[in-house]
Amino acid sequence: MRHLSTYFAVVALAPAVLGAQGTADLVLTNGRIYTVDNARPEASALAVRGARVLFVGSDREAKALAGPSTQVIDLHGATVVPGIIDAHAHLLGLGNMLQRVNLAGSTSYDEVIARVKASARDVRAGEWIQGRGWDQNRWFVKEFPTHEALSRAFPNNPVVLGRIDGHALLANARAMELAHITAATTDPSGGRIVRLPTGAPSGVFVDNAMSLIDRAIPAARRADTRKAILAAIAEANRWGLTGIHDPGAGPETIGIYEELAKAGNYNLRNYVMLSDPGEPGSATTLRNPYIQRGPQSALYDGHLWIRAIKLYADGALGSRGAALLSPYSDDPGNSGLLVSRPEHIRAWAETALRLGFQVNVHAIGDRGNRIVLDAFDSALKKIPKADHRFRIEHAQVLSPEDIPRFAKLGVIPSMQATHQTSDMRWAEARVGPQRIRGAYAWRSLLNTGVIIANGTDLPVEEVNPLLTFHAAVTRQDPTNWPVGGWYPEQKMTREEALQSMTIWPAYAGFQESVLGSLTPGKYADFVVLDRDIMHVPETEILGTRVISTWIGGKRVYQAK
Q1: Helix, strand or coil for residue 530?
Q2: Which is the most buried residue in 45, 145, 168, 411, by most CB within 10 A?
Q3: Is domain 2-83+549-558 given the CATH code 2.30.40.10 in the classification?
Q4: Cα–Cα–Cα angle for 147, 152, 156, nearest 5°?
């Protein structure tokens, strides 16, 4: 793996200073700087001119670049790392969660209802109430809830509460009534209406069945969506994020991104993945303005990339919608759901190769992953292309024979370390002791020669990327359980974990020439931390705090 660390950490053996001479706008000294650039892995000083890194090296050299108007900051021994890039982050989803009822961490259905009541005190009769974050796996009773208690608590308001993974929702009676859902409503392809013994809907809708409820919810006002996006960006900056890869954004949302970025009011670098546009060549696809424009890179001074398409193969493991090759160990009559037809994924892979788009497909179960790998294999045989950088988002449960196929096909696994620590208490019950060996299998994949683009799937997991770093190197939850880590042979090294949050996501988004390391000539995106995450004891990693976040040499967050 060392050869890949070197290759992906350095675009070229760049000089330590850009342009040899000239005055810096910003100089940082007396720090512990991890550049993720093997030409100069560590330094004590950093100089910035404009939006770019000018120099990395010693304090004395950096000070020589300071002029009368240069801002000079003494870091007093603080740690600096490249701007952290979350390779799978739903920006609007985070913004909506910040504005709605947050149910994450709730330990019972009663607590869910209590939180909704507390948040909705001033909601008028008839208004929709929305929330997200419940997870029945955290409850004493680990079965899906039914709507009755929620319906009794809110008889006059339609209520829709999304599961934490975004692959199931709970609706009360009023919401189902407005959506015209009855016992006679049939399950859509790729979705499941969970039913009571009588055949009536229980209130839980899984994967594509969620659309039956979603279509009845009034569309958000543009001003509210804009507000949510700005709130999400501020929250991301607070935790040290300078970039994200945003899977599944629609044209209206991307239009707001562009509006904000054009006005200079978008403190994030967003690698946007278009929501599944429909069948290639269909009227819906042909009307999509972002398909018509073709791949777009580094728009608005490197704040937006729009050159990828997000598809779905299956559902999620927590809601038993992930497509498995054999039935669930704890639900023998269920093998999960295929959210898209395999032919659809293959058709888009071929179309994207012709148009120059990247294709990134959600796949969690071993069957879902195999379907995507087969689709990519078929498309690349038909249209051979080097450096396509197709991705599988999550790559969560893999059959052993499919693990080497990522490297052979040039496919990037985009994974989320904190999914492992969130799921480890129940994941083995889902898939059994044999299949679990191919789940969250970071080391097995790294050993084949691929990179891993790490992320959080926020708001499914918490925004804090230090949780990602800690999980990657320990395979433990924030309480440092279990001792030694869960299947510890799959751990990353600290070097790999930092790369998986910086240069490897940059590579996975065709951005490695301008992002991902503190190399002269690249954007001056970096994070200042109050302790050295590369050397402190593992138990102290999560005690680290972000002091400041910088994008293009501009401070976008400062701790109080």
Answers
A1: coil
A2: 168
A3: yes
A4: 100
- Bridge partners (DSSP) of residue 195 are 201
Q: Is the dihedral of CA 446, 452, 457, 462 positive or negative?
A: positive
Assess whether pLDDT exceeds 80 at residue 15: no
| CB 490, CB 122: distance < 8 Å | no
Looking at residue 542, what DSSP letter applies? G
Alpha helices by DSSP H, 12-75: 59-63
pLDDT of 560 over the 80 cut = yes
Categorize the per-residue pLDDT at 323 as very low, low, confident or very high, splitting at 50, 70 and 90.
Answer: very high
Q: How confident is the model at residue 131 (pLDDT cuts 50, 70, 90)?
A: very high
Residue ranges covered by each domain of the chain:
2-83+549-558, 91-214
Using alpha carbons, select from 166, 97, 4 the residue that is nearest to residue 503.
Answer: 4
In tens, the pLDDT along 400-435 reads 999 999 999 999 999 999 999 999 999 999 999 999
Mean pLDDT of all residues in 50-57: 98
Q: What's the pLDDT at 18?
A: 58
- Give 343's strand partners: none
Residue 172 near residue 158 (C-beta atoms within 8 A): yes
Per-residue 3-state assignment (H helix, E strand, C coil) for 398-412: CCHHHCCHHHHHCCE
106-124 burial string, b = 16+ CB within 10 Å, else e? beebeebbebbeeebeeee
Buried/exposed code over 262-284 (b: 16+ C-beta within 10 A; e: otherwise): eeeebbbbbbbbbbbbbebeeee
In the predicted model, what is the mean pLDDT of the chain?
Answer: 95
Give the model confidence (pLDDT) of 136-152 as tens digits: 999 998 999 999 999 99
Helix (H) or strand (E) holding 191: strand 191-195
- Cα end-to-end distance, the chain, whole Å: 40
- Taking the model in full, what pTM does it have? 0.93
Q: What is the DSSP string of 475-520?
A: ---TT--STT-SSGGGPPPHHHHHHHTTHHHHHHTT-TTTSSS--T
DSSP string for 377-399: HHHHHHS--SS---EEEE--B--
DSSP readout, 147-158? SHHHHHH-SSS-
* CA distances in angstroms from 391 to 355, 375, 395, 406, listed in the order given: 17, 12, 9, 9
What pLDDT was estimated at residue 22? 81
170, 203 Cβ separation under 8 angstroms:
yes
Taking only Cα atoms into account, the Rg of the chain, rounded to an integer number of angstroms, comes to 24
How many whole angstroms separate alpha carbon 244 and alpha carbon 269? Answer: 6
SS (H, E, C) 171-187: ECHHHHHHCCCCCCCCC
Percentage of the residues of the chain whose pLDDT score is greater than 90: 95
Rounded-to-integer distance, Cα 405 and Cα 403, Å = 5
Indicate the fold that domain 91-214 takes in CATH: Diaminopimelate Epimerase; Chain A, domain 1 (3.10.310)
Asked if 146 contacts 113 with a C-beta cutoff of 8 angstroms, the reply is no
Q: Is the peptide bond before 520 cis (omega within 30 degrees of 0)?
A: no
